[in-house]
């Protein structure tokens, strides 16, 4: 009996250890210890209050709710146009046009009489080219940041930008559609919309020589053919080409004439403004014809006529729409929210001691 009980105990022990072994094998594995590299601290959530001192050109937008989050998915970015929040605002934004045309003129439109909190930044905002800035020296040494279409501004707010389809998850008009611009029948070769015509501007000379060689339909105040906003893009879109000629040739200055009138209407833009290299850096590839590409305006005119007559050559200017899309920045609220989007890269300490040279130099 003794040896039997020994054997029995052995059996129990064996099966128990076997059971425990199997349990250990099949039991859900416990979480492995993490490797010893410490996780980076989560970025501090943004909490920035931005006061807009004047609404640009006197046209206000609603700031109710949280427009940066609701419209542009930018969190912790609080916009106000209520001047009583001055002393608690992190950033105060001044739009140039209202500073310039204030009565009495110059820096008197700034709240220089109020104590300025030491950590508060003042931002100078303008979408206008140097030709309309006027003298900015009264504003030297007052601003910490610039908000402008220029790529080297602290907060760049271009009129539009190019995005890659898929990569930057842009929805876009598909050019296989029947009403895609490339499939449209055109009844006009080229159009131009101009309100403030000045014979001394380079664009006036280009238009003059072009219109002697090819028909150009002209709209706008100067031609006494103003277009109401709903008519603008459909009218331009009837033509093969749109003369997206800037009123001045300034660094990075590419206005809504390209982004909205040209690309938005689906006419191939003929551009005059900054260099071809700048357009290549900012506009979709192969999307435009630059006046500088030709030895003369007459050669440009002949090119336009030839391309309009050659379906395949014309379609080449729409190829980019398969891989790229354009995104316009048109709402002042979005432009203000860009200050927050850009905030992590903004210089902590900066003063524009010579704003005049920066903007006009
Ligand atoms: C363009 O014109 C052709 C020939 O007149 C016609 O068959 C076609 O449907 C038109 N396309 C559009 C988009 O209007
Ligand atoms: C912002 O500019 C003002 C005025 O020039 C200056 O006194 C202040 O130190 C600047 N602030 C920062 C944070 O750079």
Secondary-structure blueprint of this entry?
Layout: H1 2-26, E1 48-52, H2 67-72, E2 77-80, E3 91-95, H3 96-100, E4 121-126, E5 145-148, E6 155-156, E7 160-164, E8 188-193, H4 202-213, E9 216-219, H5 229-237, E10 239-245, H6 256-265, E11 268-272, H7 276-282, E12 289-290, H8 297-309, H9 311-315, E13 324-328, H10 332-342, H11 355-360
Parallel strand pairs: 1-2, 1-3, 3-4, 4-5, 5-6, 8-9, 8-10, 10-11, 11-12
Antiparallel strand pairs: 7-13
Helix pairs in contact: 4-8, 5-6
Bound molecules: 2-acetamido-2-deoxy-beta-D-glucopyranose (2 copies).
Structure report:
The protein has 361 residues and is α/β, with parallel strands linked by helices. It has 2 domains: 139 residues, Rossmann fold; 168 residues, Rossmann fold (3-Layer(aba) Sandwich), CATH 3.40.50.11660. 30% of the residues lie in helices and 17% in strands. The chain contains 11 helices and 13 strands. The strands form 3 sheets. It has a 6-stranded parallel β-sheet with strand order 2-1-3-4-5-6. It has a 5-stranded parallel β-sheet with strand order 9-8-10-11-12, sandwiched between helices. About 3% of the residues have low confidence. The structure holds 2-acetamido-2-deoxy-beta-D-glucopyranose (NAG) (2 copies). The site of one 2-acetamido-2-deoxy-beta-D-glucopyranose has 7 residues, from loops.
């Amino acid at each position: 009996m003794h040896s039997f009980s020994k054997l029995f105990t052995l059996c129990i022990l064996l099966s128990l250890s076997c059971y425990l072994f199997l349990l250990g094998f099949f039991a859900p594995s416990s979480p492995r210890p993490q490797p010893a590299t410490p996780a980076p601290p989560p970025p501090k959530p943004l909490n920035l209050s931005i006061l807009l001192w004047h609404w640009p050109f006197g046209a206000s937008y609603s700031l109710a709710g949280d427009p940066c989050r609701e419209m542009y998915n930018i969190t912790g970015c609080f916009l106000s146009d209520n001047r009583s929040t001055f002393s608690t605002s992190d950033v105060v934004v001044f739009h140039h046009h209202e500073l310039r045309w204030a009565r009495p003129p110059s820096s008197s439109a700034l709240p220089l009489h109020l104590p300025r909190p030491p950590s508060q930044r003042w931002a100078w905002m303008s979408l206008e080219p140097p030709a309309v800035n006027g003298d900015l020296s009264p504003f030297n040494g007052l601003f910490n940041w610039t908000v402008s279409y220029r790529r080297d501004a602290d907060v760049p707010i271009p009129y539009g930008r190019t995005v890659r389809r898929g990569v930057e998850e842009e929805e876009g008009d598909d050019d296989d559609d029947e009403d895609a611009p490339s499939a449209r029948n055109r009844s006009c070769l080229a159009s131009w919309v101009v309100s403030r015509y000045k014979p001394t501007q380079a664009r006036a000379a280009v238009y003059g020589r072009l219109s002697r060689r090819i028909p150009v339909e002209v709209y706008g105040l100067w031609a006494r053919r103003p277009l109401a906003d709903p008519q603008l893009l459909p009218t331009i879109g009837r033509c093969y080409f749109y003369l997206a000629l800037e009123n001045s040739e300034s660094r990075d200055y590419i206005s809504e004439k390209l982004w909205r009138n040209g690309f938005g209407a689906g006419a191939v833009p003929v551009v005059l403004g900054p260099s071809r290299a700048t357009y290549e850096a900012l506009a979709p590839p192969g999307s435009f014809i630059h006046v500088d590409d030709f030895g003369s305006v007459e050669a440009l005119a002949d090119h336009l006529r030839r391309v309009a007559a050659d379906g395949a050559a014309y379609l080449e200017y729409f190829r980019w729409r398969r891989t790229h899309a354009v995104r316009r920045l048109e709402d002042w609220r979005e432009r203000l929210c860009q200050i927050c989007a850009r905030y992590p890269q903004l210089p902590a300490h900066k003063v524009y001691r010579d704003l005049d040279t920066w903007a006009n130099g």
